[in-house]
Structure formats: C-alpha cells, structure tokens
Amino acid sequence: MVDARAEGMAPERRRDLQRQRLRGLVDRLLRAGGLQAARLRDCGVRAGSDVDLDDLGRLPTVGKRDLWDHYPHGLRAVGAEDVVCVHGSSGTGGRPTLVPYTAGDLEVWAEVMARALGGAGATRRSVVHNAYGYGLFTGGVGVHHGAVRLGAAVVPVSGGMTVRQVRLIQDLRPDVLACTPSYAIHLGEAMAAAGVGPTSLRVGLHGAEPWTHGMRGQIERLLGIRALDLYGLSEIIGPGVACESLDSEGLLNVAEDHFYPECVDADGSPVPDGSPGELVFTTLTKTGMPLLRYRSGDVATLTGPAPGSPRTLRRMSKVLGRTDDMLVIRGVNVFPTEVESVLLADDRVSPHYLVVEDRRVAARAELLVAVEPMSDGIDTDTLRADLVLALRERLGLGCDVRVLMPGSVPRTEVGKARRLVRWSEGDPPLPGLT
Ligand code: DLL
C-alpha cells in the first residue's frame, strides 16, 4: 500500500474522519455562496456542525445539468487566483464540463492515483506507459501525477500513433500499461500483427469507458498482463476515484477518505449493499470545485472491504452502465455492457462491436448488434443465429445481429470507444447496416 495509514485505517476511525471532513466541506460551501450554499440553506443547514454522515440522504444533490447551467466556471468555490489548472470532458451532445483544480486538489489527485498504481503492484522502479490522452481529458494527466508521486518513471505517450507505441514498449520495457480497455485491445492486436512476442508489460490500468469481465479476459490473453479497472470522472477528480488492486477480488477500492460514495435508486433513496444503483459522490477534501452529493449517472453496486485484505476501503463493482445509456426496448431495460458480456462469452466474436438502438420507427425501438468474427473461416450464419439466441436468453429480448466484415467497426486510437449509437434517421451508423 502506498499510504497504509489511509488505505488500511479502521473503518470506524475512517468514518470519524469522513464526518469531520464532511462538516468542513459544508462550511466551505456555505462560505463560498452560490448554488450549493443556497440549496443547503433551503434544507435548514447553517453550518457544518448541522450535518452528519447518517443524514447525508436529506442533503441536496447536484448533477451535470447544474454544471452546464453554470458553464464555464462551474461551481467554483475559490477565487480565480487559487485555480492552477482546468480539466474536463467534452461530454455528450458537445456540451463540455469544465472543472477547476487548486494546488491542493492536485495533491489529492496525485495521492489517490499513486495508491491506484501501488495497488496494481507498481513501485518506484516501475515504468508506466501512459497511453491515456493528455489534454483537457483527465486520463493522461491524472495517471501522470500518480506515477510521478509514486516515484515511477512515466512515459507520457498519450493516445494514437500505435506503431510508435509498440516500438516504445519494446525499447523502454514498461511494466505498467495505462490506457482505455478498447485501446489495450487495439495495441495488443497491433503487436500481434507486427509479430511482437511477449513484452515486459505485467499489469494494465484500464478505464474511462465501460468494459466487462469478458473484455478483461481478451485484454489479458492478448497482452499477457493482469488487467485492472480504474474508475473516475472529471467532476470528482478524474481517474483514481476507485481502482481495482491485485487483491480486491474484481471490485474497485473506492478512495472513500476523499470521495464519499452512496448508491441510490431512481428516486434518490439508498439501495442496500450489493444492489445496483446510481453512484453519488461527495468530494470531502476538494477545494476548487467541491461537490456535495454529485449524481454521477454511473450505475454500479457498493460493498464492504475485501475480507482479509489490508485495505479496509469500501469497494464498488465495475460500472454496469449509465443511467442515460440504458435502453428501453419494448419495455425491457438493457445496458450495452450486458450485450458485451453475451458477445464476448463467445470466442468466435471479436471485441469490436457496436450496439445500435434503432429508433427509425420512434414508437418501436429495436436493438441491432453489429459484430465482427474473431478470425477468417467462421460460419457467420451459425454465429449470427447463436448470438440471437444467447442475447434472447440473457436479455429476454429478440434483437437483430449483423456479422460484418472484419475491420468494419471503427477502432478508437484516441479518446473513448463508442459502443452505443442511437439511430433515428439518415444513413446507417455503419456501412453494411440497413
Ligand atoms: O473518464 C476519467 C478517467 C480517465 C477514468 C482514465 C479512468 C481512466 P470523464 O471523461 O469525465 O473522466 O468521464 C467520466 O466515464 O462517469 C463513467 O461513465 C465513465 N468511466 C470512467 N471510468 C470508467 C470505468 C474519465 N472504469 C465517465 N468503467 C464516468 C466504466 C467508466 N466507465
């Protein structure tokens, strides 16, 4: 553990720390004025001492719309002179979300990302090949801060130029790969195509987009590494909000001393541990844009620490989907990740696929799934029929499967893979789909 005191703290002691930090946060928000202060006052909160962790549920939430409504400075809670950088995401529908960071926020970020790397087995001797995009996106810079804090050597290669990346991996012999899961597949395929054998890579930290255990298997086979999940969102800090460690049993340790997690249903009521719900985060220690009860839109489950692990942090599941990515097809709710788990359970299917919500007849949305065969010589008619059956069994829904020529689904070299499109009019989202 990078910070045994924080990661291994007794849960009751951590709860005291969280309570104290929550009160400090509420005082900071009230002092800063603005939207969150007004909402707190409307709830009868006059000072941090009025709140407790146990009644967090009665406090107001904030959401993406609030950030959009307050663009460009968002819910900044400090003077402009205290802001040292701005990050964000391009967002859906071209509406960016910008997040101001103070020097203190960068400290927190470096700390939680160093812990994430440490949990993956990285040390001062590690070389981290960082293929997350550098820029406004938090992936590249966030992993960078963590690697530097750990004392590892970071190769800030960013996204794209895959041939050069393969070369750098051979020459610099990194043990840690940091990139999106879809880029890990792309990189692995490029290495196989170039005849590059086993590399020095040992572990990967993958996130920024949803991916399933099936995709994990594909990455691990292709690259010969342990593939771990790294989660975060720019509104909260970026990567490092939660991360799998080698011993966390497939779940992600939440950095809950800095980001207090809740899991709620559509009405905002808490769901029990182990039940899926929307993750809500409170940034206990951030100062640039602190958020009280930010509704992330990400659906996952929460659970306690791994039994027997020195880490005592609560854990979250892989993200199952986003509330706004949930498709409702003939009354059945479907997340694209459920489709992915069915597809990748079949070793004839390549990890390049696209889920299309066909809304050309608005009153009757249909699910169309475009896949590519893993290799030549696969009987595509049988594959298609088998997938239709497997999807019907898993989702309880008939859908249309198209097996396309290899290479038809666009690869993502930079940024996040696009796994879901909504098709309401015009040309098909992929050539060959009609
Ligand atoms: O994607 C931060 C990040 C960078 C995380 C690199 C991990 C690695 P945003 O661009 O603001 O920030 O997008 C945040 O991406 O709300 C999720 O919907 C999705 N997301 C992030 N990590 C994961 C993950 C970064 N591990 C949004 N699994 C979040 C599934 C993820 N979805």
TrEMBL record:
Q: What reaction does this catalyse?
A: 2-phenylacetate + ATP + CoA = phenylacetyl-CoA + AMP + diphosphate
Q: What is this protein called?
A: Phenylacetate-coenzyme A ligase
Q: Its Gene Ontology molecular function terms?
A: nucleotide binding; phenylacetate-CoA ligase activity
- Please describe what this protein does: Catalyzes the activation of phenylacetic acid (PA) to phenylacetyl-CoA (PA-CoA).
Pathway(s) this gene product operates in, as recorded in its UniProt entry: Aromatic compound metabolism; phenylacetate degradation
- AMP-dependent synthetase/ligase domain location is 74-281
User: Which CDD domains does the UniProt entry name for this protein?
Assistant: PaaK
Q: What is its EC number?
A: 6.2.1.30
AMP-dependent ligase C-terminal domain boundaries: 331-421
Going by the entry's taxonomy, the superkingdom of the source organism is recorded as: Bacteria
GO terms for biological process, alphabetical:
phenylacetate catabolic process
Tell me the enzyme class.
Answer: ligase
